[in-house]
Amino acid sequence: MSDTPANPNSAAPEGQQAAPSLTVLAQYLKDLSFENPHAPGVYQSNSTPKIEVNVDVQGRALNPNQYEIELSVAARANREDGEAMFVVEATYAGVFEITNVPREQLEMVMLVECPRLLFPFMRQIVADATRNGNFPPLMLEPIDFMGIYIANQQRRAAQENGEEAAPAVN
Description:
By secondary structure, the chain is of the alpha+beta class. The protein has two helices and four strands; from the N terminus they run ββββαα.
């Protein structure tokens, strides 16, 4: 028999810290915009568009141990002449309960682990929006949220030390 409790939600044995926990309480589409400013003329072009994608993650506390995380994506496809073929902007959010995570690691969980859970849903929303606009589905490439977090931490540290910082990673 084991000395550990069978119920993972019960209290940790005396002297031991409870295991960290990340629970998704809700997920929802907060904002979605699709623009096709030059339809129907845009469909007569055979040029391959240049696609620019920007990603942002924001988090805020709602209650003790509960946080709303917003994953925002803005994608724009331009023809060679710079004319916009389409613009899609979306914000997908989730409410997460994060418990037993050391304070110094909370930001990393909010900006890395939470958007990692939201990303597949955002990817599908963007793909559906572009497909519904009569374009091939825009399949977002996987995002290295940890790499972005580390780069932003290094940039922040460089700014605090008075060094010239590299541009922020989106």
